[in-house]
Predict the structure.
Amino acid sequence: MHELSIAESIADSVRRHPALQGGRKVRRIGVQVGDTSGVNAEALDFCFTIVVRGTELDGAALDLERVPVRFRCETCGHEFEPVEFDPRCPACGAERGRLSGGDELSLAYLELDDEEPGETRE
Amino acid sequence: MTERVTVRENVLKENDRIAAGLRAAFDRGAIFCVNLISSPGAGKTSILEGTLEALQGTAVRAAVLTGDIQTERDADRLRRHGFPALQITTGGTCHLDAAMVRRALDSLSLDAMDVLFIENVGNLVCPASYDLGEDVKVVVLSVTEGDDKPLKYPGIFRRAGLMLLHKMDLLPHARFDPAAAVADARRVQPDLEVVETSCYGAPGLEAWVGWVRSRLDAKRAAGRTLSAEP
């Protein structure tokens, strides 16, 4: 259960992002969670809600995108989603699939209000 | 109206930054650093006790940082074997992070060590995410656990450089297929090295200790080559 630490890291990264200058409100935070990242998306969502409660990020929604395990065949270059890490390439049959995706844990995007608070539109 | 800003950065960027600093310090000191990871009870502390015993009286100076959620027990055990051992008590956190290691190293002299063993908190999930600046993650899989662990916990096997198949002396009593465990682990990490170990009886820890010593030698040789370059 390290989702609480991960949630804190996400909140810290977001707060440090230069796009937030001027106090712009964050609406959505896109996070990619790879299947082998060891992070449980549901627990992360729950922890994030707690971590940001009462802060400037309160109310920002986490958009968690699951990234499935991907293999790339070292013989023919074909990319595929393996079943239980079976390295057999469906294109050429070689048993040379190597993990090429699915272990990411990354901040993908921020969705921010256009206007700074207090700004009035004429 | 809202605006979408693309970010694309690792969530654990700050941990990675601290880990990079640690790695640079280990490289400068030609210190070989092992991050030892397993489920609770797989035998990490016993392996380290045997390893320290084996290194006593050799030219290799070891040091240990051992992570635990609550107690000081592991450091107490490890200090009996002639090398410095420091407990990192995480107070509930299920893994070590780079900042905890950096803080702990404030009270150990990097000049006085050749090999640093970091015993992570017993857990096959969370420690995989946190780079501690180590040269290699070593995952311990004991034969009293299931041989299906590599596919159940692919994250850690994917990031490990060496797997210790441990408690091999108990293999006759365990329903554990070592060949299947190795094959599954290599599906996740084709370059994974495997060494069989036990703390009691054969095969012992000799092959593992030899592996550590050869990796230390290789690191020193690489450091000399680098510093000899103009």
Observations:
- Chain B has one domain: 34-216.
- The mean pLDDT of chain B is 95.
- DSSP finds eight helices and eight strands in chain B.
